[in-house]
Amino acid sequence: MGDKTLVVIDDDDLVGQLVVEAAQQVGFAARAVQDFEALKIQVDTAEPDVMVLDLVLPNVDGIQVLRYLADRGCKAKIWLLSGFDPKVVQTAERLGVSLGLNIVGALNKPVSVTTLKEELRKQLRESGDFSAHDLEQAIADDHLFVHYQPKVRLAGERIAETDSDVLTLTVDDTPFEVMGFEALARWRNPHGALVSPVKFIPVAESSRMIEQLTQSVFRQVIEALSQWKARGVRLNVAVNISPSTLADLDLPDRLADKAGALGVSPDQMILEITENSAVTEDPHFMDVLSRFRLKGFGLSLDDFGTGFSSLIQIYRMPFTELKIDRSFVSEMDQNEEAFTIVRSIVDLGHNLGMKVCAEGVETRASANTLMTLGCDYAQGFYFSRPVALPDIMRRIGTASALDVSRRIS
Questions:
Q1: Has residue 408 got a pLDDT over 50?
Q2: The model's pTM
Q3: 114 and 202 inside one domain
Q4: Which DSSP string do the residues of 164-229 spell out, in sequence order?
Q5: Rounded Cα–Cα distance for residues 402 and 395 (Å)
Q6: Do residue 51 and residue 100 come from a single domain?
Q7: Residues 109 and 157 placed together within one structural domain of the fold
């Protein structure tokens, strides 16, 4: 495995050299360029693994560069670099993601060398090489596994802690009822590196392996639900589903049959579909979603607030839950506009007869704000990181609560 390559584009030579030196010290082969034409050459010839992009450049701006990279099919992990208005930077991040780019995050100017090195080391740890064949083999050999992040109840009727069929999670001496989990696919590649779903799911989609991956995740989730049922606990699990699989008219039947074979009710499963995916005129999309609902599956509109859906689309589609995107949740206690958006989404969901879940909750203050607003459910690192199935099984059916908060990544 060769050196990972990094390219930084910044018209300030001192900043460029600072990033290059930090990258070289942690193990990257790095180079700085100062203009767009030089960057084009690097993208075409070097195919960098990581890019650090200044949003304000002479003769071209960062948004134009992002669109160019998207048109070129750039697969690099991209850090945005800026001392500009944070709101503009956040908009650029969301635009990059919507264009299909792998936007890792934003670095503020002046750049902290310590922070930069820490983030670059993280990228090296997570960037083990793999091929589409490696992923295909992993799926065939059942080497993909599922971790579960708890979703806790914030509002509504709570069940007494003493009931044997209730799972609780205690954080800062406060018990929360665990009403379910979100299933998150994980894979350790042939080199032993943990590969981010952000990397392997696009490979699965482009190589037409996404259906096999989806079937693997669903099988593991259904088996987990069956095991929990045998221990006397009835929970639900949310599973992310690729829009490319929603053209399969027989998918609702196959998944319902798999659940029924193990005595799992479809209403214990929630299918999460991103807001951008819901913006489609494909008649099969509505057909498949309606059939899932008729069979009892729940439907959640994920990352709500970041896409381009209209109210009429939400009204027409049979969703049962809205999930508030983490970008709003993380900012709502410091940003009045983010707070207003979160409050509006909670009100919108309830007025349309849906439950509302907030993701990315990382502080007690955020949890308190969401409870005040009447948000139904929440998940995030404040409550728990994703948990391996054996850790959940050890606590189900015992006297102890699910005490997994902040323990397992």
A1: no
A2: 0.72
A3: no
A4: TT-EEEEETTEEEEEEEEEEEEEEE-TTSPEEPHHHHHHHHHHTT-HHHHHHHHHHHHHHHHHHHH
A5: 6
A6: yes
A7: no
Q: Which helix (H) or strand (E) holds 342?
A: helix 336-351
**What are the E-state strand segments in 289-354?**
298-304, 321-324
Element (H, E) at 392: helix 389-393
Mean pLDDT of the chain: 84
In a shared domain, residues 119 and 179? no
- For the four alpha carbons of 249, 258, 295 and 390, in that order, the dihedral sign comes to negative
Determine, yes or no, domain membership for 160: yes
Q: Which residue has the tokens 């096999």?
A: 212
Query: Could you report the per-residue pLDDT of 363-378, keeping only the tens digit for each?
Result: 999 999 999 999 999 9
Contacts of 192 (CB under 8 A, 6+ apart): 128
Integer Cα distance of 141 and 101 in angstroms: 30
> Same structural domain for residues 106 and 171?
no
Shared domain check, 180 and 78: no
Rounded Cα distance between 281 and 119, Å, is 40
